[in-house]
Design the sequence.
């Protein structure tokens, strides 16, 4: 929450014909994210039986594409043993595996980038205008999945200019440009239509404090100082630790959203020997100057990786997963470096060092996989199944809930159901809940800052009971429309206290009839006294 729910919501609303928006409380709002990944989700949504909980399978499919694509790319640029090892390293990466089960854009971005690199290498090798146009389309898709993927253009330019024969002709450039313009052009239209400006984005709408004149998202001090109290290091050290595969050893795995995808792991992206072999792979690859495909792949990958890293180093928000789309070159080079170092193995200190790295790499992967397999399977939330079970009862009803209204619209929306938020309190109180509210708090914060847009109804705005909403709920009941209270069971003492106080206020005006009780939620009917 809230990223995955927002991506899913955009996809579902595209399927419903509402457009790339967030829709809840009967109102549509602009989304924070670009449309590339939601378009992929929306295309697959009907094939998934219109079940939002299955959208994670789309990400899993793109993970398989990324592994297969990396294998083919490494096979083409290096050799088969390197391709097998590169695919193995990616397929056993804990962070990659964790993200491949989430409705998040990191893994799809990696898959599209790998396909774009393959199209580029083919276009350069065969001088194919069709491949140039296809490369442009794929790069455009990658950019609309995440704007920072535009850094791949620096890698493409480096590969074209630094590798002979140079093939920077007018025709292939135009073919690439025409293909590239399609999806960014669509994104520009979406920005203009929903946000009023081609260059605007949904973050300006939802998080305007990050775009004030006195806020600086890029500062050099972020290189050396933690930009957030939850971070242990400045970006320079934090990214170095992650990229060297030392994050498990140095206890830096629980960074931002990584807390959700890196539970009980010993390294995040790859173990330390993989980073060493990647460096060796680049060194050995640069000695193959006669192989244009190898050199183009290396220059493109390193140019993309360096550009993306330079962008995020001074950025105020630290997330090693942001670099995942550019890490294809690290995995490919690691595979090639591992093969090349062992092929050159000789007795001596260097040979013993390579053998030690081999043993540590294999041991780290085996121990990591074995420990994960030995872990008990975590209990899965039944909230989706429970909400689906009560959905028939919610038809043509009013539902007051502390569950995210955006989430409820996904699983129980439509059929005349109207959702009312219980409150708009700060989501920090809800950090351990199954599904937390986020958007109502932001909307009411915007209203307090002078924004005058529409806001869904809330029973306790600002923590105080709204008499007008109480009267409205009572009138709905008199009309024969049932009014329900749907609550997720509190998991923190603070949130239990908030609910207990609010229930006391509700009891002054309504009686509460229990309807259904589940391990994670409870449904009751409210009737005016």
Sequence:
């Amino acid at each position: 929450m809230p990223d995955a729910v927002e991506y899913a919501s955009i996809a579902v609303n595209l399927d419903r014909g509402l457009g790339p928006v967030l829709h809840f409380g009967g109102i549509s709002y602009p989304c924070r994210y670009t449309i590339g990944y939601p378009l992929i989700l929306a295309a697959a949504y009907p094939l998934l039986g219109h079940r939002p909980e299955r959208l994670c399978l789309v990400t899993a499919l793109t993970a398989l594409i990324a592994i297969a694509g990396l294998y083919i790319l490494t096979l083409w640029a290096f050799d088969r043993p390197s391709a097998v090892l590169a695919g193995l390293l990616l397929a056993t990466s804990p962070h990659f595996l964790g993200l491949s089960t989430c409705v998040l854009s990191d893994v799809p971005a990696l898959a599209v980038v790998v396909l774009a690199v393959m199209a580029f290498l083919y276009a350069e090798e065969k001088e194919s205008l069709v491949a140039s146009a296809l490369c442009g389309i794929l790069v455009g898709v990658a950019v609309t999945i995440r704007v920072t993927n535009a850094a791949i253009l620096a890698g493409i330019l480096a590969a074209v200019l630094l590798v002979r024969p140079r093939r920077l002709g007018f025709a292939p450039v135009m073919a690439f440009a025409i293909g590239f313009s399609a999806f960014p052009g669509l994104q520009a239209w979406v920005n203009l239509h929903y946000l009023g400006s081609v260059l605007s984005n949904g973050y300006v709408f939802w998080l305007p404090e990050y775009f004030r004149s006195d806020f600086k998202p890029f500062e050099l001090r972020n290189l050396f100082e933690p930009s957030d109290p939850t971070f242990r290091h400045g970006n320079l050290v934090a990214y170095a630790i992650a990229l060297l595969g030392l994050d498990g050893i140095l206890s830096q795995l629980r960074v931002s959203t990584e807390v959700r995808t890196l539970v009980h792991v010993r390294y995040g992206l790859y173990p330390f020997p993989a980073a060493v072999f990647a460096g060796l792979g680049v060194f050995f690859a640069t000695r193959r100057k006669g192989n244009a495909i190898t050199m183009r792949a290396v220059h493109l990958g390193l140019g993309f990786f360096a550009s993306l890293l330079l962008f995020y180093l001074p950025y105020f928000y630290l997330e090693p997963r942001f670099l995942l789309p550019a890490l294809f070159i690290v995995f490919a080079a690691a595979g090639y470096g591992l093969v090349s170092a062992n092929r050159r193995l000789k007795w001596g200190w260097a040979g013993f060092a390579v053998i030690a790295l081999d043993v540590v790499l294999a041991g780290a992967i085996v121990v990591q996989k074995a420990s994960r397999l030995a872990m008990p399977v975590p209990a899965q939330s039944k909230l989706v199944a429970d909400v689906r079970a009560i959905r028939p009862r919610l038809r043509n009803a009013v539902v007051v809930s502390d569950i995210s209204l955006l989430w409820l619209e996904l699983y129980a929306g439509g059929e005349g159901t109207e959702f009312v938020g219980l409150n708009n309190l700060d989501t920090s109180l809800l950090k351990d809940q199954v599904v937390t509210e986020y958007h109502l708090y932001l909307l009411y914060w915007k209203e307090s800052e002078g924004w005058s847009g529409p806001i869904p109804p809330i029973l306790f705005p600002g923590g105080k009971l709204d008499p007008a909403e109480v009267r409205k709920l009572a009138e709905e009941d008199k009309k024969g429309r049932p009014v329900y209270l749907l609550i997720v069971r509190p998991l923190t003492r603070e949130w239990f206290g908030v609910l207990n106080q609010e229930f006391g206020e509700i009891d002054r005006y309504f009686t509460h009839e229990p309807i259904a009780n589940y391990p994670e939620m409870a449904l009751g009917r409210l009737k005016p006294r």
Observations:
- The mean pLDDT is 90.
- The chain is about 55% helix and 10% strand.
- Strands lie at 21-24, 27-30, 398-401, 418-423, 458-460, 483-488, 510-517, 521-528.
- The longest helix spans residues 170-195.
